[in-house]
Amino acid sequence: MKKIIIYALLVFVCMLSAAAAQIPLWVTDRTAQFPEQQYVSALGSGGTAQEAKDDALSQIALYFNARVSVERNAHLSMVEGGEKHRSISSDLSVTSESELPHLLFTTPFKNGKAKEWFVCAYIERSVASDFCVEKLERCMHSVQTALDPICGRSPSFADMQVLCEEEQALKSVETLLEKLILLSRQPQDDYSIKIRRLRADIEASLAEARSSATFYVAVQGDDDGTLSAVIKEILVSQGMTLSTSGRYCVSGSVAMAMSENDVGVFACPNLSLVVVDETSGKSVYSFAKQYKRWGHKTADNARARALVEVTKDIRENFRPIGEI
Questions:
Q1: CA-closest candidate to residue 105, choices 36, 148, 44, 165
Q2: What pTM was estimated for this model as a whole?
């Protein structure tokens, strides 16, 4: 009987050992499998494999966002390699895994007893750093190539559009540099200096272009001047100057197609705008849209409601020289 009990205990111990052996090392000791010197990693868990993966993705994204915050504001202290609080991961906005260079995931593991899934997200620092350097240099070269023909001459409207595009591209370059600094643990001063020079060149060329970019607005059908006022506001906010004899004319028309049925009166706006360079007579930007119809009990209120929606759309999307 004693032998049977001993044998049963041995079998039980062996079963426990076998069960423990099946649990991946990255679940029980993540940094043992993914050392901090070599990897950026995060362990995610959830009720399903996808939930565990999403949790791991949020945490590794939080690592980058939080560390950048530390670098910028110098008011937050975090121990590198420590676990991040998942409660603040909901504030993150990661549109795709491609935002994180060379991000990989382990095969999902399910702990049958706890009915919980685990996934580890990880990035190998050296591989991701090399990727960031290559992409960084390629993007900076692209920006510089676009600037070379513009710098040193009086920029045109088309040049302003290019400059605004490259200004947006440079923001992506700066984000990429932040990732490189975190991955390599090096300050990357050379790249920082080059980026500052590119930004200074863009800002100087844009300032020169805006100083000579005068405009006036003439929109047919805009009887009360509501749309014209919004267009002027947008262009002035982009640094251009209003002038009755401006170089650029924003012309076009807005029309309301009216209809009526038992429910009420409906207004369907049609907008067409074009920016013309008066010195050459060429169109440098156009904005046209056929909107859906908006209804109300009276024709005046239907028109007013439609005009509000058109105005809102112009504020959001009318950008002759791009985003500023």
A1: 44
A2: 0.64
